Automatic annotation (TrEMBL):
Main location: membrane
Annotated keywords: Cytoplasmic vesicle, Glycoprotein, Membrane, Neurotransmitter transport, Phosphoprotein, Synapse, Transmembrane, Transmembrane helix, Transport
GO molecular function: transmembrane transporter activity
Protein known as: Synaptic vesicle glycoprotein 2Ba
Membrane topology, from the record: Multi-pass membrane protein
Naturally occurring in which organism (per UniProt): Sphaeramia orbicularis (orbiculate cardinalfish)
Residues that span the membrane, as ranges: 118-145, 157-174, 186-206, 212-232, 244-267, 287-306, 400-421, 546-570, 582-602, 608-628, 640-659, 665-685
Biased composition (Polar residues): 1-26
Amino acid sequence: MDDPYQNNVNQQMTEGGEYTYTQDGSGQDGYPYQTDYPPQEEDAASDATEGADDDEQMYEGEYQGIPHPDEIKEARRAARLEARKKARMAAQQEEEEENLPEQYESIMEECGHGRFQWMLFVVLGLALMADGVDGFVVGFVLPSAEKDMCISNADKGLLGLLVYVAMMVGALVWGGLCDKMGRRKCLIYVLAIDLVFSFLSCFAQSYGFFLFFRFCSGFGIGGSIPIVYTYFTEFLQMDKRGEHLSWLCMFWMLGGLYASFTAWGIIPHYGWGFAIGSEFQMHSWRLFILVCLFPALAALVGVVFMPESPRFLLENARHDEAWMILRQVHDTNWKAKGEPERVFTVTNIKTPQTQEDEFIEIQSDTGTAFQRWTVRHMTMLQQVMANIMSLSAPELRLQGLFLVIVWFCLAFSYHGLGVWFPDMIKYMQYEEYESKVRVFHRERVERFHFNFSLINQIHREGEYIHDKFANIEIKSVKFEDSLFENCYFEDVKSTNTFFENCTIKNTVFYNTDLWQEKFKDCRMENTTFLHPKKGCHLNFQEENDIVIYLVSFLGSLAVLPGNIISALFMDKIGRIRIIGGSMLASSACTFLLLLSFSQGAVICWQCLFYGASVAAWNGLEVISVELYPSSKRYRTAFGILNGICKFAAIVASFIFAAFIGITKIIPIFLAFSALVCGGFVALKLPETREKILS
C-alpha cells in the first residue's frame, strides 16, 4: 500500500550527508532536515535559526504542534504492523481452537479407557444416585410430615412445588457456573449444599424452616445432572461416550430403589424415633431423610480425591495442570492393564488463552481483596450470560429449538404420569374403601362399653346414653346429627374421624386426640376435656401404605432393562433412533392405560412405561452433551435444558393431579400427544455418535 506522502515528497542527499525533503518534485517549499546536529550554544543556535535561508530552515511545524511527516509515516507503519500481528494471532487462535478437539480426542485415545474411568464412573454415579434419591424423598415423607407438622393441603402442594422450582434454578445456575469455576469445584459445592441443608431439614420442627431447608437442598442437587454428565464425558473417547453415559444413567435408577427400600424399612417403624422434651420430636421419617444423605456423602468424599477435568483446564489455558492430569489418567489405566512401562508421549498441547481470562487476571492484580473478588465474580457472571445468549445464534437456533421441544415433551409426560400413577392407585384404594363403608341409622346404644375399634363407619341420628369409649381406635368414622349424653371417652386415637351437627351433654374426654377441629357445628353442654392431645399426631399404620413403596420400588426397578438395551445399542444404532423409538414406544404404553381398571393393571403399565421411556432419557442426555459445538456453550446449554425439564415437571404435576378422580382420559391423552410429538421432533435432530466433542 502506497503512503499518501510518497508521491509528493522526494528524498535527496546533499554533499554534506544531509537529507533534503522537497514537495511536488520541484525541490521548492522544502524543509532541510539533518539527522544529527552538532552541539551548539543556545545563543548560537538562535542566531543560526534567525539568519538561515528558507531552504535551510528547521521544521517550523514543530512549534505549532503539527507532527512531522516522518512521524506520521512511522505511526502508520506501526499501525500496519500491529494490525498484521493481530490478524496473525487471531488466525493462530482460531486454528488452535479448531485443532484442540481433534488433539484432545487423540490424547484420550492414548490414555485409554480403564481403571481411572471406572473409578470416576462410581464416584459420579453416586452423585447421580443422590439426585435420584432426592426426587423421591419428599413424596415418601410427606404423608408423615403433614401430620407431624400439621401441614395443610395448600402448604403440602407448596412443598412439592418449591422443591422442583429450586431444582430448576439450580440446574440453570450450576450449568453455567461449571464452565467458569470448573466441573470438580462446582460438583463439590453442589453436593455440600445438598448435604448441609438436607441434614438441617431432619431437625426442623416448624414447617417454615423445613420448607426453606428443602428448597436450599433442591437448589444444590438440581445442578448435579449437567455437571456429572459433562465431567464424565470429558474423560471418555468418542467411541465410548454413548455406552458409558448410558451405564451411568443406571445410578439414577439405583437412587429410586435405595429411597423406596429404605423408606419401606424405616418410616413405618414409629419406635425408631426419639424425643428430647416436648418440643423436639425425631420421628422415623426424619431418620429416613438422614439415611438418604449417604449417597451424597460418599460422592462428596470421592469427588474430593478426583482431579479437575483436563478439558476444562485446557480451555482456560492451564496447560501444565491439564498435562499432569492426563498423564495421571494414562499411567493409572496402563498400569492396571499390566503395562506400567508405557510412556505418555504427549509433550505439547496448543491452548489459546481467551480474552475473558486475561481480563480476570489483569483485574485480579489491582485493588483491594474485596474489589478483586467483586470484579472476578461480576466478570464470571457476564461470561455466563454471554454463553446463554450465544445459544440463540442462527446456527444453533433450530437444533436448540428441536432439543427444547423433545426435553419438554418427555419431561411433561414422564413426570406427569409419575404423579398420576401413585395418586390414581390411592384413588382406587379410596373408592374400594368407600364401597365397604357400613352405615348405621337411628341406632340407640345405652350403658355399653366400646372396647373395640370402630373402622369405616357412618352413624346418622344415633343416641348414645351412658356409654364408655376406652382404649380404642376410631378410624374413618363420621357421626352425623347424633346425641352423646353422659358418655366417657378415654385413651382414644382417631384418624379421619369427625362429629358433625351433634349434641354432646355431660360428657368427659380424657387423654384423647378428639379436639376442636374434630367437631363441626356441634352443640356442647357441660362437656369436659382433660389432658387433650392437641395438634396433629402420626398414625404410622394409616400413613404408610406398603403399596406406595412397592409401586415406587417396582417403577424404579422396571427401568433396568431399558438402561441395558440403551447402553448396548446407543453407539450401534445411534442416539436419534434410540430417542425417537423409545418415545413412540412409551406413547403406546400410555395409550393402553385407558384399558386399566384395577390397581394391578395400573402398576403393570407403569412399569412398562418407565422401562420404555428410560432409553429416551439416556439418549437425550448423551446428545445434549455432544450437540453444541462451542467449548464454552454446551454445559450452559445442558443446564438450561435441565431447567426446562424441571419446569415441565412443575406444569405436569399441577395438570395431571387436577384430574385425579375426575377423568383419566385427559391426562392420558396429554401424555400420549406429548410423547408422539417429541418422538417425531427427535428424528429431526442431527446424529452425533461419530462427532468429536468440540
